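Aim 2 progress update. The chain analyzed this quarter is reproduced below.
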Amino acid sequence: MQGFWPIFFLAVILKIPVGLMLYLVYWAVKAQPEIEEAPEGGAEDHEFRRWQRPPRAPDALPLPDCPPGGRTRVVTQPATVRVASAPGQTRRF
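Predicted structure tokens:
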């Protein structure tokens, strides 16, 4: 009789939470969404307001407008790289 109770526990008792979870999912799928009613004044008295939190990091701020002369790009020569397979030689990539 010592092998009956573990099998009973696994086969019957642990299926109760699974059954309740399946019922909860079924109930959530079948639920109808609640529809909010529009304000009585209609769209005339409601204006659209966009709210946006300011960024926290200073590098997340938008770039300033271009200066009158436009932006220029500074081009530098590529750095010299030493190749590990050829000691003592340098190559430019």
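Strands lie at 81-82, 90-91. The chain has two helices and two strands. These observations will guide the mutagenesis experiments scheduled for the next reporting period.
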